[in-house]
Amino acid sequence: MFLRTLATAVCCTLLTTASLAQMGDMKMDQPAGKSMPSPPATANVTLNGKAVTINYNSPRLKGRTIGSDIVPYGEVWRTGANPATTLITATNLRIGTIEVPAGTYTLFTLPSAKQWLFIVSKKTGEWGIPYPEGNDLGRTPMTGKTLPASQENMSISFENTKGGSTELHVKWGTTDQYVTVKAD
Q1: The pTM is what?
Q2: What's the CA gap between 142 and 73, in Å, rounded?
Q3: In whole angstroms, what is the distance from residue 79 CA to residue 25 CA?
């Protein structure tokens, strides 16, 4: 009887811990229907007839500065907020210099003042932090340009799509970092 009670207590503790970990920084008193501070967003593109989707949460600047207050230079960033940013591709891709087989991956970036790196991780299902070192499928340099006006909401988008080629853009503040994506 004691072992059954102990096992039940351990299971309840594990379930509670897992539930709280998944909720992260959500507020328990948040009214139903009220938007989250970093709401979910999706970027979709079709390359050579096959779907490519990125699911992410879009943080806001809220007066902070990229590179110092938020998304510190030299530290791997989950490229969004809340759960990890996820790439789901029905086709093999070449993202910059990275060969990405069809499947599901987690996306990160390594920002710097001079050049950002785009990171595709084989590990999936994590919250987004801490960064799962040792699980990179690959890293590739991004191209940067300055936006004409500051963008409050971080966004991921596919732009300049032609057939089996597109650009994956990460925009926030006055930063626009992008990498070429090609379907095989």
Answers
A1: 0.79
A2: 14
A3: 17
